[in-house]
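Q: What structure does this chain adopt?
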Amino acid sequence: MRYYGIPSESRVEEIAQSIESGIWIYEDLNARVRQELSVEEAKERLKEIINQIREWKESFTTMSKSTIFVFVHEPSQPKAFKIYDTSSLGCSTELSPPRWKLYLRELEGKV
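A:
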């Protein structure tokens, strides 16, 4: 699956609002949490994560405001999100595993 970086938190909010249907799976890989969410719960969880990212960008003054943390599969019809945290920043040639995943249940095992 190909993912596209979302350049701003306000754009993530716009994309999140376009979620219309399905059962969503939320995974917090650090806390080892996995939950099934309704569309509204998925939108709310994304909003919470977006607020966390905004806090990081405010508190870490050396971090560029354009740092991308959220990636989406098909921005026009979002089906899966991978969200990274500050531990992914650095000089690596590839991103470490995402902190959070949010995806449609039918994509389980493909994300």
